[in-house]
Amino acid sequence: MKWNIPSLEELEDILWRCTACGTCKEAYDYGPPPFSAPICPAGEEFGFEGFLSSKGKIAYARGILSGELQWNDALVDAIYRCNICGGCQSQCQLDHKPFIPEIIEAMRRKAVTDGVGPMPKQKVIAQSLSSYDNPYQGPRRVRLDWTRPFKKEGKPIKNILEEPAPILYYVGCTGGYNIPVRTVPQATASIFHKLGLDFGILGEQEVCCGSTAMRLGDAEAFQRIAESNLEMFRKLHEEKGVKTIVTSCAGCYRAFMKDYPMADEYGRMMEGIRVTHITQFLHDLFQMGQLKFSESLPWKVTYHDPCHAGRHLTKYIIDKEGTQLWAGAYVNLDEKDCLYDIPRELLKAIPGIDLREMRRIRSNSYCCGGGGGVMTGYNDWAQRNAGLRIQEGMETGADHMVSICPFCHYNLNQGAQGIGSKMKLFDLTELIDKAIA
Length: 437
Ligand code: SF4
Ligand code: SF4
Description:
By secondary structure, this protein is of the alpha/beta class. It is about 45% helix and about 10% strand. It has helices at about 10-15, 40-45, 55-65, 75-80, 85-90, 100-115, 120-130, 150, 175, 185-195, 210-215, 220-240, 250-260, 265-270, 280-285, 340-350, 375, 380-395, 405-420, 430-435; strands at about 25-30, 35-40, 160, 165-170, 200, 245, 275, 300-305, 315-320, 330-335, 355, 400-405, 425. Helix 3 packs across helix 6 (about 100-115), helix 10 runs parallel beside helix 20 (about 430-435) and helix 18 (about 380-395) packs across helix 19. The structure holds iron/sulfur cluster (SF4) (2 copies). One iron/sulfur cluster binds near residues 57, 82, 87 and 101.
């Protein structure tokens, strides 16, 4: 397969459009009441003017391309001190806006190709992906541990390679291997059972989506993994009748929706297959009247928008021919794929739920702090940042924080523990499972 993943050199023209204005420092809401609040976790931790946020990283990209900067430990460290959260991208209004995370990832790709990236602790991920097909150094058989309660209850989950089903539930490595968040696939499978849906999983044959490799700049590992997944999805469609792939993890969803389409074969491989996040999937059933809530949950909850299920799915409208402004100008954005409204609609539909919004939400959401390889590379920082987000949630008076990404869930939980907060973390599927009879 041929991949259309841009190199830093190919982005050179674009990255000179940053004016170093600093608008990417703050999230703005013009109200009423108006507010502004920090949006860049790297800027918060290491100092915006210390060139650790997007304008600084773009300055580094210029230096690397012009040859004025040579790789050294501090420079490599600086480009990996980033969650690739896209918070800066949401704030910037200049023509390179659609490409900001791409520029940072292209620098990482160059660092990997030049043999200096990723950071030492993150190299474990690359080794694990190559030995175990997951970033957690977990043996394949462990992927199935979360299914044990279903087997015990006499409701085993289908292995889709052995028994056909129209729905593939792609569990993801975080839900499979990370013990505290195995509740997410368990709630999802429980909902599917209650709704009488015919679904299956790949079990030990599931491999990582490749998102972590891509975010760390390891394009070679990403392509190898993505090609094997695309081939598997094609085979499942043709031989097992799979028409829908449902993901739990915002990172997997982003990878399938935005990274995989960079393959020239993507259209052919995915023909007849719809990829959807569990939130969208359940919202569709809710709208059709097939998902009904009967149990009350008298909880005060706040909702955390994961970057990968929110602003990462924004589509940017670029004036390609120069008919509206000039060729290459950023004209507007299309947020219809961003999962902003539907999780909130589902939450509000659950009887008893009192939804209390934080200040930074939707495209202004503040990253949990774990993404972009930070949880592995800089775990203390990831936890501190998650603590800041938990603090923001506590200010709403909520005692539960809900999200739609097991990875955010895990890191936010670490953050809550780190600051001694009693905030309880839940995935939306866990609430839905409790709310249906
Ligand atoms: S990335 Fe955009 S908002 Fe940030 S300094 Fe550059 S032009 Fe300004
Ligand atoms: S992607 Fe996120 S962490 Fe990275 S520079 Fe932008 S706002 Fe900061």
